[in-house]
Write a structure and sequence with these properties.
309 residues; Aminopeptidase; 2 domains; 12 strands; 28% helix
Length: 309
């Protein structure tokens, strides 16, 4: 049987989601987000969503593009996943080939790819010239079992709100997200500067739940938040938790995350997921305090491109 690699079409949403859930069950997503991501990606990202199809079935996926918001020029990304039940058909190799050709044509000098930390996945990456870099953990928490830390009494001058309370003017949350994102450990240091793109890619994203996203205010200023994403079912994830630099060390990020988790459990969500850079000790400690446990690890791999592929 022949594997065909082509660009994503709207009718591929369910198949794409099936591959991602099978390969990454600890990453909260929903079918509607893929077309949204493609439609709202900035032109300078040159985003392509590729599918590997066999006999009409989507068996592999790849997200490919230029890290346009990175402080380092010439970086591209290529994240490839194959359905665990459809390995050994050559879909991964063909997805990588098409992705690398696309990025080389755009002038990328290095390609970054997240690879699951298992022997087969790492061998696949190594055999194609990718070298391991930093790692990140996926963590899970069974909300159905209870056991969340109790809500804390708010210090004087501190208030808890939700992102939905900023529906009339979310710009203060954009400023907060931008400062936190700039300090996030990453091989691709990112800067949030485009408010309109942030509105499309975060504020209006299909999996973002603004009613479960908690925001800490000191006075009237948003200083910490915990972004909530959901899959439309029973799975919840913390997309980002962070605090403004001037207010760090006071436990405000933890307070926001605890509030969001309590809201999620009350709304009927049974599993919570999050992710952390392996070197982000403070957030790993916070998540351990909540009871999260590492359920999987990915390793960022990097390939430096030569004159030809």
């Amino acid at each position: 049987m022949t594997v065909i690699v082509r660009d994503f079409r709207a009718e591929d949403a369910a198949g794409w989601e099936a591959v991602r859930r099978a390969a990454l069950p600890f990453l909260v997503s929903a079918p509607g987000q893929w077309a949204h991501d493609l439609a709202h990606s900035p032109p300078e990202q040159h985003l392509r969503l590729l599918v590997a199809e066999e006999e009409g079935e989507v068996i592999g996926t790849a997200q490919v593009g230029v890290a346009h918001d990175s402080a380092r020029p010439g970086q591209g990304f290529c994240n490839v996943y194959t359905h665990p039940g459809r390995l050994g058909r050559g879909s991964g190799s063909e997805l990588v080939r098409v992705a690398e050709s696309h990025l080389a044509g755009l002038g990328a000098v290095e390609i970054l790819s997240w690879v699951l930390d298992d022997p087969a996945s790492r061998a696949f990456a190594r055999g194609r010239g990718y070298e391991p870099s930093r790692s990140a953990h996926f963590l899970s928490l069974d909300l159905a079992k209870g056991g969340l830390p109790p809500r804390q009494e708010l210090p004087p001058g501190v208030e808890l709100r939700t992102a939905e309370d900023f529906a009339d003017d979310p710009r203060p949350l954009f400023a907060l997200d931008a400062e936190v994102t700039a300090d996030e450990p990453s091989d691709v240091p990112s800067l949030l500067t485009d408010y309109e793109h942030w509105l499309a890619s975060t504020w209006h994203h299909p999996v973002v739940d603004r009613s479960l996203t908690s925001v800490v205010l000191v006075g009237s200023e948003p200083v910490a938040f915990s972004l909530a994403t959901t899959d439309g079912g029973t799975r919840y994830a913390s997309g980002m938790t962070g605090t403004k630099r001037a207010h760090r060390g006071r436990g405000l990020g933890r307070m926001a995350k605890n509030d969001s988790l309590h809201r999620a459990r009350a709304a009927g969500f049974t599993m919570a997921y999050t992710g952390n850079d392996a070197g982000n000790g403070p957030m790993l400690a916070i998540n351990a305090w909540f009871g999260y446990q590492v359920c999987a690890t990915e390793v960022r791999h990097v390939r430096t491109l030569g004159p030809t592929l």
